[in-house]
Amino acid sequence: MAVFIYAENINGHYKKAAFEAVSYAKSIADKSGETVTAITINPTDSSDALYKYGATNVINIKDEGLKNFSAKAYANAVNEVFDGKIIVFPHTTDASSVAPMLAIQKEFSLITNVVESPENMSPLTVKRNSFSGKGFMHAKAEGDGAIITVSQNSFGAKENAVSGTEEIKNLTIANEDTKVISHEQASTALDLKEAEIVVSAGRGMKGPENWGMIENLAGVLGAATACSKPVSDIGWRPHSEHVGQTGKAISPNLYVAVGISGAIQHLAGVNSSKTIVVINSDPEAPFFKSADYGVVGDAFQIIPALTEKIKAIQQ
Amino acid sequence: MKILVCISSVPDTTSKINFTADHSAFDKTGIQWVINPLDEFALSRAVQLQASAGAIVTVINVGDATTEPVIRKSLAIGANDAIRVNLEPKDSYQTAKEIAAVAKDGAYDLILCGKESLDYNGGSVPGMLAQLLDLPFVNAAVGLEINNGEATAIREIDGGKETISVKLPAVLAGQKGLVEEKDLIIPNMRGIMTARSKALNVVEASAVSPKVDAVSFESVPTRAAVKMVAADNLDELVRMLHEEAKVI
Ligand SMILES: Cc1cc2nc3c(=O)[nH]c(=O)nc-3n(C[C@H](O)[C@H](O)[C@H](O)COP(=O)(O)OP(=O)(O)OC[C@H]3O[C@@H](n4cnc5c(N)ncnc54)[C@H](O)[C@@H]3O)c2cc1C
Ligand SMILES: Nc1ncnc2c1ncn2[C@@H]1O[C@H](COP(=O)(O)O)[C@@H](O)[C@H]1O
């Protein structure tokens, strides 16, 4: 029986998290000699993008009524076409809202925030994040139906091209519980949870007017920007940039922390980054103990200089 | 209007997380317990709605008797009364089923949760609960207004925000933004005193089997020692990031 995946798209375009979920499903399918079937709702991107990561079938749900997202309506739509025993979701905001509803509809086990391919297929046993970056849990599904959500930027998107086929499914799912009043979405800004590189800054920056140099460094690196909690609490930066135990948990390839002390709650949300660089004027800043590379010094001098040096090697 | 706020009791955010010697469970020795920080935003918003929307606020926790101090704190913050379902839940499914059983007959207009519990990071109970009760579900809420019994919510989306109107009753799971950090309600002496006489009703759990079993736990691997680079030698930092870590 096929391994299913929910391929989330934003305004029709597949997210990197969708490719990660396909890759994850493919790793399961390979273990059991199965194929991957992707379910997606109103995409404009071609299904080729999903074949490239190993989806052999794409069920393309077309439903004008699902233009606006509602967790319930989307769960109902997926339930219409999902007839397998296992389905993988990306752990994005929207997909991770659909998965629990579907889990109840199907009476399946739900295991969220999964970081590695299953260590055992029957019973299904997987490693997942727990304690907000301070530990891992090995969780086992009871029963034979399971829904998995895959933590972003952890398993990774792995190209694994197959030749695939697409099936169009026209549905008319009721979607009246919520109505969109306004929708603001920056199409250009890098999604913090998907970014490969994140440049993050804390109270050491002294004020919001000094973020230009952080944005410049991020620009040169093709990075998303983030901040510590107090920085968003005092309104220097938007809440959406707050990383840590009570904000977003992220795991980029490179995390650059500027003027952030490294409190345990901050570390919890970022310590699964593959490489951490800390820049802090205080040699005793706790963050250095959890870093791979450290520079003691004044961010106001180091950041512009570092930006120029990185630009230079890119030429 | 009746609001049910779901509260989980989690280790204080400063806690070091250790596991038992056989790795089978979280080691609770010496842990201070707090209201899940994301639930505090939901609770504070609900308490604000007592005055502005005439809300009656009930908090619910699925937990054994050790969670009562955290429930009392919720009452001190301003909830009108509390329910504890007497069960140490094994997974999100059990928790959601127990809350649903209580909520089914409670005629709540709104059920507020945190987006995620900071212990096991399920992010699952609110959506499960909404489906069990067949209610609309809004996740990652960063704003909520109630006017004449109509709810308007702001939800975080990847790279932005969406403002939506929501048919009530509904389940909302929120985080910072529901109230700002500075508007989190901190219990005062009067709150703490009155909390003692507010009702905390204990109900027995139904026998729901869990669907996920936490087999074992593992700590996070420690990083190799930090490599320090002098501030006047940034070329070396760039070189190491490029050649050694291969991240730029
Ligand atoms: C319940 C709870 C939850 C929390 N959750 C989070 C969370 O999710 N995320 C989070 O980030 N925090 C969280 N915190 C807050 C956390 O405890 C710290 O207070 C916070 O992370 C500190 O932010 P900061 O490092 O920006 O500021 P500070 O601790 O003030 O550190 C500023 C740093 O900048 C350095 N600095 C100053 N000037 C310069 C300069 N010119 N150049 C270079 N460096 C300089 C200083 O040496 C210092 O290390 C939480 C706290 C609580 C109680
Ligand atoms: N034991 C519990 N009792 C009451 N509410 C809970 C419990 N566990 C989780 N919740 C609620 O569900 C939210 C999400 O939790 P979880 O799905 O466990 O990450 C929490 O923020 C709480 O609002």
Automatic annotation (TrEMBL), chain A:
Belongs to the ETF alpha-subunit/FixB family. FAD binds at residues 203, 259-266, 280. Its cofactor is FAD. It comes from the Bacteria. SMART domains: ETF. GO terms for molecular function: electron transfer activity; flavin adenine dinucleotide binding. Residues 3-190 form the Electron transfer flavoprotein alpha/beta-subunit N-terminal domain. Binds 1 FAD per dimer. One of its GO terms (biological process) is fatty acid beta-oxidation using acyl-CoA dehydrogenase. InterPro entries: DHS-like_NAD/FAD-binding_dom, ETF_a/b_N, ETF_a/FixB, ETF_asu_C, Rossmann-like_a/b/a_fold. This is Electron transfer flavoprotein alpha subunit. Keywords: Electron transport, FAD, Flavoprotein, Transport.
From TrEMBL, chain B:
Keywords: Electron transport, Transport. Residues 23-212 form the Electron transfer flavoprotein alpha/beta-subunit N-terminal domain. One of its GO terms (molecular function) is electron transfer activity. This is Electron transfer flavoprotein subunit beta. It comes from Frigoriflavimonas asaccharolytica. Belongs to the ETF beta-subunit/FixA family. Pfam families: ETF. SUPFAM superfamilies: Adenine nucleotide alpha hydrolases-like.
